[in-house]
Amino acid sequence: MLIDGRPVRGEGEPLELLDPATSVPIETVRSATLAQVDRAVAAAAAAFPGWRATPVAGRAQRLLALAQDVEDQAETLAAIESDNTGKPLHLVLQDELPAIVDCFRFFAGAARTLWTPASGEYVAGHTSLVRREPVGVVAQIAPWNYPLMMAAWKIAPALAAGNTVVFKPSEWTPLSILALQEAVARSLPPGVLNILTGPGQTVGQALAAHPGVRMVSLTGSVRSGQAVQRTAAGNLKRTHLELGGKAPVLVFDDADAEAVVAAVRSAGFYNAGQDCTAACRVYAQQGIHDRLVDALAEAVASLKVGPPRDPATEMGPLIHPLHRQRVADFVQRAAALPHARVLTGGQALPGPGCYFAPTLIAGLAHADEIVREEVFGPVVTVTPFDTEAQALAWANDSEYGLAASVWTRDAGRAMRVVTQIEAGVSWVNAHFTYTAEMPHCGMKQSGHGSDLSAIGLHDYTHPRHVMWRH
Fold this sequence. Notes:
6-stranded mixed beta sheet, globular
């Protein structure tokens, strides 16, 4: 682990990490103890005054140095990430590492352009201005599906804004952020970024409850978010939560069917569907439904599932045997429905590892469990609808509100639907495209607070009004 700029061996329970492609143990790390949590928070608190006082340009230079270090080590980090998560190596290197580097570079620049209301005389004889101040010590808890990407999304804005951080990766996937320890020590002053390993139920909860922590940022399940928010309420610390999702994909009769199929093939199965914004809940209007289902079945069946190091692999294994069983249980219950049609996949693949076949299920009703609940695996469902009003009602009839997409050639319809859909991120004739300049955020039980963009940077600050009488 990393505490106060120095590598530290965890003194808690051992955590055995499995290779998802083989289910064979690849490494053992040790969890932090509660005493080590205290040490990390104390180190962050001690580093905060100096980091906060560092001119913004100075903080930006430090982040740029860290970004360069990540870029220089891209192949090594991609290999570690692939081994620990089962992601296809070429996709990590091609898609994720460049975005991680860009995230650090974006926030290095964004920190220098924080905006506030204009200073001025809003009361006669008084001049007002607004300051954006860092919150203080921020605890950050990341998930296992994008270990290094989520680390960048959290660490970069928090540090750019002048906070110090205690970061906890998932207990299943800590290896890539641990591999960055030397780069962190080179780029940042001691204590500005501390890294602890351990389970969410112990180390994560200890951070959420810690009186020295001013804010908790979590990406994870709804249940994890509820636990963190309950714990954080003890001293009313700020929470920043990006939780689950069940993205609706509304396909109208006039949509470009080929484009829809290509998008769902990619956005529904990238990272084996282990993504909160995956294109997993397709609603297709009656006029396009049958040919869309046929084309989707052919496209999904063509996905190349294989070992992460094979350049031809499009989809790797699921993260863990327990998670594969959870996905299999969802599919088994859905397949037992008399109206459901499993068109391709539907089962775990034989052999070693946590592989599950890319799965498409049609004929489902909006009320079915697998349509409403987050499966978090390579499973896409298709449900027919009749009218625009029905599609919009079904899309919004969900506890989730993270992402959605609308597919139509009718600009008026697209605008009507996308402005009424309850999702923090909505695409028109696209799905799963991100940029650091725009916010990634949720509604309803998908959480609150924004990642990415200047809005995400502002989430790690307190606004303060300062007024002079003269």
